[in-house]
Predict the structure.
Amino acid sequence: IAGGIVGGRAMAANISATSFTQTGGAMGGNVTSTDYDQSGGTMTGTVYASAYELSGTGDVSGVADFSTEFALSDSGMVESSAQLFGSNSTMTQIGGEMGGAVSGITSYDLSGGTIDGSGVVDFSAGFTLEGTGTVDSGAELLGIAGSTMSETGGTMDGSVTGIDGYTQSGGTVGGDGAVV
């Protein structure tokens, strides 16, 4: 959609498509798609996709259920009300701001942008912090037995719990950073 509203009062929508591109407007319905590419507008509904790409000025405050990858870049924004569910999948962030809750992923690679103080990331294998990525104070990274975190760049001011090991070869663990 490039403008207008899908879902809500204007139109109760259930859309199934091979690919779905949102460049503007508001999507408040339900979309099932192999690829969901959002570069603008607001997604307040529910998206079931293999891959979800959030870029440009896109804003997510709804639910995204993805099976391979969620990619966040540019000025994309994942609001604190957003819920991202990955089924043994990955999340990459090279820009933007992630303030929602992420669960079910194996790994998260943060090389740019910020996980803000309301962000919660639950991962089962590894979390990588590099480049200019920032984990703000208040953000929670939750690993499980056997998982690890590595930092080669960026700033870690949040907390990480449940991991077996933390390796730092660059970057900064700030005054609020905690490894438990």
Remarks:
- Residues 45 and 125 are 29 Å apart (CA to CA).
- The two ends are 44 Å apart (CA to CA).
- The first strand starts at residue 5 and ends at 6.
